[in-house]
């Protein structure tokens, strides 16, 4: 495939803003062919604000031969029909997390795209932060030694007004609470650094701070396939909210990643620091973070699709974090350790 990637944008809600900003930065690589959402007023306002063409009907984009891919930014309960429609039309798909509300449904979407021979990429933009890539390179080079312990903390805050939006924090719309809607980013990033988790034991709850169907607090112990152990705590009930963090303790050094800053403390006394402080959306404003991570992820997706290469974060790879989330929830429900196959 040569030239620019023709892209359809589906969904104009809160999560679409960093995508729109990123796409304006990528006009040399991507041409937005149309924006569609079910509400005409919203899609018109979004298209006008960002200078994108408006599509009056979804079928218009599906039938357009110059649309090579679709960026799907809808809530999880609207994904199934959209993915099926675009995949059958031979359009590649880049989709917001999670893949679907349940792992079974997510697996179905992955198989559907593979059968249609279209690429399915998932928006896990935290992998594209510069310090995330630096940490991954240090791990791969052996600078940290063997990782023996992993600590993940997601102490976020959401006011009740956030969950008052119809469907927010419900199983029917979102598929769950803090794990699948917020902590999924940090858990995916962790897995990309550490490899798979083999066993978990967890407790989850809905705190007195929120009225919602699913959980807003989870804490658990982790055993990794590598032999490392670890812990995770994730919540949207920690006022006023703080940045998520990942700490990896290795035989040669310990690394701490938080707020766009990576600090590595070596056992020989050296300390190295990379990055600069940036918002991550952990407080009252969920969108308080830079759009550069989205830009780099979308650029990578477009470049790989145009080159006929596999995308960086595929739907199949995203199933790993879905299965980890399932295990954490099941462990709390059954009050026992759960093994991940």
Automatic annotation (TrEMBL):
<protein>
    <submittedName>
        <fullName>Oxidoreductase</fullName>
    </submittedName>
</protein>
<dbReference type="InterPro" id="IPR036291">
    <property type="entry name" value="NAD(P)-bd_dom_sf"/>
</dbReference>
<dbReference type="Pfam" id="PF22725">
    <property type="entry name" value="GFO_IDH_MocA_C3"/>
</dbReference>
<dbReference type="Pfam" id="PF01408">
    <property type="entry name" value="GFO_IDH_MocA"/>
</dbReference>
<dbReference type="InterPro" id="IPR052515">
    <property type="entry name" value="Gfo/Idh/MocA_Oxidoreductase"/>
</dbReference>
<dbReference type="InterPro" id="IPR000683">
    <property type="entry name" value="Gfo/Idh/MocA-like_OxRdtase_N"/>
</dbReference>
<feature type="domain" description="Gfo/Idh/MocA-like oxidoreductase N-terminal">
    <location>
        <begin position="7"/>
        <end position="121"/>
    </location>
</feature>
<feature type="domain" description="GFO/IDH/MocA-like oxidoreductase">
    <location>
        <begin position="133"/>
        <end position="255"/>
    </location>
</feature>
<dbReference type="GO" id="GO:0000166">
    <property type="term" value="F:nucleotide binding"/>
</dbReference>
<dbReference type="InterPro" id="IPR055170">
    <property type="entry name" value="GFO_IDH_MocA-like_dom"/>
</dbReference>
């Amino acid at each position: 495939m040569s030239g620019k990637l023709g892209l359809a944008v589906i969904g104009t809600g809160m999560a679409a803003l960093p995508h729109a900003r990123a796409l304006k930065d990528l006009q040399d690589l991507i041409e937005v062919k149309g924006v569609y959402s079910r509400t005409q007023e919203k899609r018109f306002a979004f298209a006008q604000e960002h200078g994108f063409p408006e599509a009056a009907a979804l079928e218009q984009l599906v039938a357009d031969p110059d649309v090579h891919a679709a960026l799907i930014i809808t809530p999880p309960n609207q994904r199934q029909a959209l993915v099926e429609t675009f995949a059958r039309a031979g359009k590649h798909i880049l989709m917001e997390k999670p893949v679907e509300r349940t792992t079974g449904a997510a697996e179905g979407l992955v198989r559907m795209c593979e059968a249609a021979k279209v690429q399915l990429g998932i928006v896990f933009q935290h992998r594209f932060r510069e310090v995330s890539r630096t940490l991954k390179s240090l791990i791969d080079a052996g600078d940290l030694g063997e990782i023996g312990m992993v600590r993940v903390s997601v102490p976020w805050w959401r006011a009740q007004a956030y969950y008052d939006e119809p469907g927010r924090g419900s199983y029917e719309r979102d598929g769950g609470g803090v794990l699948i809607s917020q902590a999924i980013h940090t858990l995916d990033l962790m897995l990309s650094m550490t490899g798979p988790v083999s066993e978990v034991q967890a407790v989850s709850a809905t705190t007195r701070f929120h009225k919602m169907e699913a959980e807003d607090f989870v804490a658990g112990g982790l055993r990794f396939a590598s032999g490392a152990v670890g812990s995770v705590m994730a919540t949207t009930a920690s006022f006023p909210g703080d940045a998520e963090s990942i700490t990896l303790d290795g035989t040669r050094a310990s690394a701490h990643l938080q707020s766009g800053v990576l600090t590595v403390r070596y056992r020989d006394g050296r300390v190295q620091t990379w990055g600069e402080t940036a918002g991550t959306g952990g407080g009252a404003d969920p969108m308080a973070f830079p759009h550069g991570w989205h830009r780099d992820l979308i650029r990578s997706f477009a470049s790989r699709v145009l080159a006929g290469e596999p995308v960086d974060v595929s739907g199949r790879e995203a199933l790993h974090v879905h299965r980890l989330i399932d295990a954490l929830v099941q462990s709390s429900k059954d009050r026992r350790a759960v093994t991940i196959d």
